[in-house]
Amino acid sequence: MIKSFRSKELAALFETGKTGRIDVKMQKRIPLRLDRLNVAERPEDMNLPGFDFHALRGFDPTRYTVHVNGPWCITFAFDGKDAVRVDFEQYH
Questions:
Q1: Would you say residue 1 lies in a domain?
Q2: Structurally, how many domains does the chain consist of?
Q3: At 88, phi and psi to the nearest 5?
Q4: Pairing state of beta strands 63-69 and 54-55?
């Protein structure tokens, strides 16, 4: 379950289904990833075709990423069975 967001815009999109700060083209792909993350109980549950799931280097605790569009990704960490500090960013 998603417990916390770092991105207010991503939290708004997850909670209300809309936000004015994220490109509309990406808003179509983000809910699928957030819905999956909300039911994931471990990071590997996000390893689905088209998500380009992988761990990011240099973070403690480990942060993970799934691809959205171009350089934009959803990044997150896990605390037990919960996704925490979920963010929408260009990390490359």
A1: no
A2: 1
A3: -120, 115
A4: antiparallel
Query: Which range marks the domain in which residue 73 is found?
Result: 8-90
Structural domain contains residue 27? yes
pLDDT digits (tens, 9 = 90+) for 61-92: 999 999 999 899 999 999 999 999 999 999 76
pTM: 0.93
CA distance 58 to 46: 20
Beta-carbon count within 10 A of 22 CB: 18
Strand ordering across the sheet containing 82-90: 54-55, 63-69, 72-79, 82-90
Question: Partners of 14 in the beta sheet?
Answer: none
* CA dist., res. 24 & res. 43, Å (int): 27
